[in-house]
Amino acid sequence: MGNGPRKRKTKWSTPLFFKRCKIKANERISLLCPNEKISFAILKANSPSCGVGEIYDGTFSKVLKKGDGVFAAFLRQKNIKLFTEYNINQIKKYICTTPNHSNTS
Predict the structure, then answer these.
(1) Contact indicator for 94, 81 with CB cutoff of 8 Å
(2) What's the pTM?
């Protein structure tokens, strides 16, 4: 019936779904921390919503593609520095070298 596995088209891979997710992300950030100055975020690697630099394609076939997840892209537009759980050393360095994150106690 064809060459290789068939990819399923899901709601996760449609432009309208991503547009709705982006709107919801904006609302959630505004509700959760309306007065906070967020400078960085630690997100789940490869997630279609939170992945940074590389995400699953949304077909549940474990295929990765270049790009940011919907929520990660939203945060990047807000100039928020993005990390994943695999960037622990980079996170430590960022916190130690960024003036707003130094320990002032």
Answers:
(1) yes
(2) 0.65
